[in-house]
Recover the amino acids of this structure.
């Protein structure tokens, strides 16, 4: 029964995981990959520039992409909570994430720091900050 539940979670999150697997193609060209707790993690190589100035680490389904290993290590717990969120929301995760970000912005909140999914993932607790006070990414 547990295997069936696990398989259902992977299938439910699979549209997002496919996006993450496309991102892992960057890791094949000089980056690194490994599997931890049922999640594929990739870092380095072209991911350093592919994530651009927007993200240090990003989760897409059961795939976590990071600029480098140190950032991945710093954000792993946070990102694994996002994996659980993808398992809960499935293909609706990304549209709901965007809508909640717009809602935050429209109500005078910060679309990232005050985002309900980010807060659930512990952003208010785990949030590393750059010297100028900006959130680095989670």
């Amino acid at each position: 029964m547990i295997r069936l539940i696990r398989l259902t979670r992977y299938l439910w999150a699979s549209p997002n995981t496919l996006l993450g697997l496309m991102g892992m193609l960057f890791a094949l060209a000089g980056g690194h990959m490994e599997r931890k707790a049922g999640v594929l993690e990739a870092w380095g190589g072209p991911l350093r520039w592919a994530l651009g100035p927007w993200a240090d680490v990003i989760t897409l389904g059961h795939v976590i992409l990071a600029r480098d290993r140190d950032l991945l290590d710093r954000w792993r717990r946070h990102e694994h909570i996002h994996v659980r969120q993808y398992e809960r929301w499935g293909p609706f995760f990304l549209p709901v994430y965007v809508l909640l970000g717009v809602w935050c912005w429209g109500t005078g909140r910060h679309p990232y720091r005050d985002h309900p999914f980010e807060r659930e993932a512990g952003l208010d607790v785990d949030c590393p900050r750059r010297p100028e006070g900006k959130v680095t990414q989670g």
